[in-house]
Design brief:
Blueprint lengths: L7 H13 L5 H13 L7 H16 L6 H7 L6 H18 L11
Helix pairs in contact: 1-5, 2-5, 3-5
């Protein structure tokens, strides 16, 4: 099951936030979403993580063109298309959660 599924309206709001967020709490939410992707890479591969974040942001703003395959080549990323799409969904989910667009569904301690 996909834990990062969002309604289409929320995905469009995420695209708007990626494109033009300039105030809190949205800037913090963008940082949290980026950190989610940075955490997937070891310290010596943070340059690739930065390229991944940039590619994800382009794909969120423009979901149809360029294609994920084109972005992988353009940003010189060494992940599969399915992994890239999963990272994109996770990024948008974290962004929506941290922006309080969706409830936090994580287990409470």
């Amino acid at each position: 099951m996909n834990n990062y599924t969002l309604p289409p309206g929320i995905v469009k709001v995420c695209a708007g936030l990626v494109q033009s967020a300039t105030t809190e709490p949205y800037l913090s939410a963008l940082c949290a979403a980026e950190q989610t992707l940075f955490d997937k890479y070891p310290a010596e591969q943070q340059q690739e993580a930065r390229r991944l974040v940039a590619a994800v942001k382009v794909n969120i703003r423009h979901p149809r063109r360029p294609s994920a395959a084109t972005l992988l080549r353009q940003f010189d990323l060494s992940v599969s298309e399915s992994t890239f799409k999963r990272y994109k969904r996770e990024y948008c989910y974290v962004l929506a959660r941290e922006s309080h667009l969706i409830p936090d569904a994580s287990p409470k301690a």
